[in-house]
Amino acid sequence: MNRVYNFSAGPSMLPVPVLERAAAEMLSYGESGMSVMEMSHRSPDYEAIIKKAEADLREIMNIPDNYKVLFLQGGASTQFASVALNLINRAPSKKALYAVSGQFSGKAYKEAVKMGLNAKCIATTKDTNFDEVPVITRDMVDQDASYLHICFNNTIYGTKYSYIPECGEVPLVADLSSCIISEPIDVSKFGVIYAGAQKNMAPAGLTLVIVREDLLGLADETIPTMLDWKTLADNDSMYNTPPCYAIYMAGLVYEWIKDLGGLEKMKEMNEKKAAVLYDYLDSQSYYIAPVKAGSRSMMNVTFVTGNADLDKKFASEAAKAGLKNLKGHRSVGGMRASIYNAMPYDGVVALVEFMKKFAEENPKD
Ligand SMILES: *Cc1c(COP(=O)(O)O)cnc(C)c1O
């Protein structure tokens, strides 16, 4: 078997022990005689799976008791609408604040505008092509607003907030799709956290929402049932059929993290991996890392050679060497190495070795 180092931004690598366990349990989960894929979501076996997944996630993320954990479908993109519909009524102003730090936060903002809501962009780094995250200070957050939405780690541009913005009484809503469970985070600083699972948690099909209880039940009566967090919370994510298999896989990933030593340990491992890459980028001039100091992502590392043809050659030769999916997002070009939890340290070392070799063999004149 020939596993490659897969630097895809998502869907992305899953830990080998998790895949092995899923393979071992594929034909018969426990004594059930059936795959988890084939089980009723109301069966005792499955109920134990989803309950354990939630308990383990609460443990590793240290989620306070006054927060609900929802396992949903529809992707992070569906939450762009859900966030607005569930929260816009929180304050009498019915005003929503957005910081636009890249494509996904831009889409979230546009979704609110599209729905005819009073949405205001309070900060953006669009003018510098999102080479850093915007500064958000307490005085920029109108205290009469219903919520402030940010994207904490910008998957396409490779930027991340190095701090949690101070919002006063206004709930902070954050898209953590590409950095969830990569390091400890103080959940109590957020009103809502959501994430598509396919970056750092599970196969595609699962969307995680962590919502503070006082933010449930604020939506108009006309909210579509499947977007209403209250309905989903009241039914323990089982209002309809949940993404059963993806939840099971997420549960295996949470167990894997627990066994490794939790998110402190995960952070240490991720920092070590990112440092190998950033230290190399900072030590030379062949490759340029466009992200400004202070905004560097630990999960998505972007770089360019400054020559589009060389960038193309880099991605294709790297793929031949077993380093897959290093081409940058179609909207920005260049290269992007996504080094989520499941990427081994050796994968990043192999990438840096390849980068050195490529630079030697392809001089710029
Ligand atoms: C991938 C991604 C999304 C979109 O997720 P879907 O699950 O495909 O809708 C949204 N936000 C961020 C930060 C992402 O990385």
Structure overview:
The protein has 365 residues and is an alpha/beta fold. The chain folds into 2 domains: 16-259, Type I PLP-dependent aspartate aminotransferase-like (Major domain) (Aspartate Aminotransferase, domain 2), CATH 3.40.640; 262-361, Aspartate Aminotransferase, domain 1. It has 9 helices and 13 strands. The protein has a 7-stranded mixed beta sheet with strand order 2-10-9-8-5-3-4. A two-stranded parallel ribbon has the order 1-12. Strand 6 and strand 7 form a beta hairpin. The two termini are 41 Å apart.
Would you summarize the structure shown here?
The chain has nine helices and 13 strands.
Search tags:
9 helices; alpha/beta; Aspartate Aminotransferase, domain 2; 7-stranded mixed β-sheet; 365 residues; binds pyridoxal-5'-phosphate; 2 domains; Aspartate Aminotransferase, domain 1
**Helix content class:** 25-40%
Low-confidence regions: none
- Total helices: the number is 9
Rg over CA atoms? 21 Å
Q: What hetero molecules are bound to the protein chains?
A: pyridoxal-5'-phosphate
CATH topology term of the largest domain: Aspartate Aminotransferase, domain 2
CATH secondary-structure class of the largest domain: Alpha Beta
Strand content: 15-25%
The count of β-strands is 13
Number of domains: 2
| Major sheet: arrangement of strands | 2-10-9-8-5-3-4
Please state the average pLDDT score.
Answer: 97
What structural class results from the helix and strand content? Answer: alpha/beta
Topology:
Layout: E1 5-6, H1 16-24, H2 44-61, E2 67-72, H3 75-87, E3 95-100, H4 103-114, E4 118-124, E5 147-151, E6 153-154, E7 159-160, E8 172-175, E9 192-196, E10 207-212, H5 229-234, H6 244-260, H7 262-282, E11 300-303, H8 308-320, E12 323-324, E13 335-338, H9 345-361
Parallel strand pairs: 1-12, 3-4, 3-5, 5-8, 8-9
Antiparallel strand pairs: 2-10, 6-7, 9-10, 11-13
Helix pairs in contact: 1-6, 2-6, 3-4, 6-7, 7-9
The structure holds pyridoxal-5'-phosphate.
The site of pyridoxal-5'-phosphate (PLP) has 12 residues, from helix 3.
